[in-house]
DNA sequence: CGTCTGCTTCGAAACCTGTCAACCTAGGGG
DNA sequence: CCCCTAGGTTGACAGGTTTCGAAGCAGACG
């Protein structure tokens, strides 16, 4: 288990949403990533990780920021990890999470649309 | 009910995710929008609407594109409408949907991040 | 080598979402 | 004015998701 998923292939990463109809396969892949962002806790977790100095944040620093238990935070981090939005990195005792910048940029590009014609 | 929600206030619309920690209130608002995008059907619906000529698409043109019943498509369109991503416009017999470009651009700006420091 | 802290995983309950069947409302044509 | 088609809404059920408590595993320190 804990097998890393291969999400957002190159052909998918840069398809603008308003340029052409998204194929069903790409839509399922993108929807999985957006679904991972569809939770306030995960959105804040990703924000804290991405805005952290060096782009890395320790779980011991993330957990006390919420009124949730450790396992719950771990679950949300797992969802973000399986969505390809963050990557876990073990540095000694603590586990550090790092945001996947290209993946976020790809999602941003999908939503980036031209002004209404 | 069916009251239009006031989502994504100006202070929220342009906060980059990787620049600073997103407040809980803004996170809930953004998460609601991303949650609406977290379904393949809704993502394709928004794509079809946004990529349609003039940015407007008729329900009678959207429904046959999926293997879903009419009410289900209507429900997904309602979710997109309440998330502020699309706006409904009645033109005679059929209802036309139009994508909310500024809203999509705001979400794109949130995910747009600077390269890792 | 023993123990301790910290993170993950497993299992179960409560909540929410997606889907469909049936009914109601709005506009067009005769 | 009446009937017909097209969309939208409501109610209900199946499935997934979120959350917590308990147990398991990896690494650090004495």
Outline the fold blueprint.
Two copies of one chain form a homodimer.
Chain A: H1 10-13, H2 24-37, H3 40-51, E1 56-58, H4 59-62, H5 70-82, E2 86-91, E3 94-99, H6 101-111
Antiparallel strand pairs in A: 1-3, 2-3
Helix pairs in contact in A: 3-5
The structure holds a DNA duplex (30 and 30 nucleotides).
CATH homologous superfamily of chain A?
A: Winged helix-like DNA-binding domain superfamily/Winged helix DNA-binding domain
Main sheet makeup of chain A: 3 strands, antiparallel
Quaternary state reads: homodimer
Query: Could you state the order of secondary-structure elements of chain A as H and E?
Result: HHHEHHEEH
- Cα end-to-end separation of chain A: 47 Å
- How many individual helices of chain A? 6
> What is the CATH C level class of chain A, in words?
Mainly Alpha
Q: Helicity range of the residues of chain A?
A: 40-55%
Structural class of chain A: alpha+beta
**Total strand segments of chain A:** 3
**Level-2 CATH architecture of chain A:** Orthogonal Bundle
Instruction: Specify the overall morphology of chain A.
Output: elongated
Write up this protein:
- 2 copies of one chain form a homodimer.
- By secondary structure, the first copy, chain A, is α+β, with helices and mostly antiparallel strands.
- Chain A has one domain: Arc Repressor Mutant, subunit A (Orthogonal Bundle), CATH 1.10.10.10.
- Chain A is 50% helix and 13% strand.
- The first copy, chain A, contains 6 helices and 3 strands.
- The first copy, chain A, has a 3-stranded antiparallel beta sheet.
- In chain A, α3 packs across α5.
- The longest helix of chain A has 14 residues.
- The first copy, chain A, starts with 9 loop residues before the first helix and ends in a 6-residue tail after the last helix.
- At the A-B interface, α2, α3 and α6 of A face α2, α3 and α6 of B.
